[in-house]
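tool_call: predict_structure(chain=1)
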Amino acid sequence: MTDKAQGDEARRVIAENRKARHDYHVLQTWEAGVALLGTEVKSIREGRANLRDSYARVQGSEIWLYNVHISPYSHRGSAEHAEMRPRKLLLHRHEIRKLVGQTAEKGLTLVPLELYFKTGRVKVLLALAKGKKEHDKRETIRRREIDRETRSAMKSARRS
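tool_result:
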């Protein structure tokens, strides 16, 4: 495997929106680039980004990312960026058209799941999601506990 091929597979996750998988049913995902300032990229490299309560919205023929908190870069000097400013997502035109049609449906929203580096560029894993009801959340938790108990029972049965 060449260095270029290894770089394509390498993905270093910086921030994860764990709450999104708890609050939404993920229907489909896309990888999008993010238009950032230099100090924002440096701050992200330091791991100072937070995706909690963030979302994406279609405006015209563009998709924007809101409520992503990127702390100021520690060695910034005079260059500074707004921590919570809207950031443009970079997608192909046909992908944007598809998302416009799907978000027009009732109850579907765009939620960022992960922020990561891929071949030196900041990418976001964007999900088309539908909100869970309270009983769905309880069902997910109950299923997770049953799986955990089953795994531990299997493990103890193998030891005997």
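agent: The beta strands are 11-16, 24-34, 49-50, 55-59, 62-66, 69-70, 87-90, 108-118, 121-131. Proceeding to next step.
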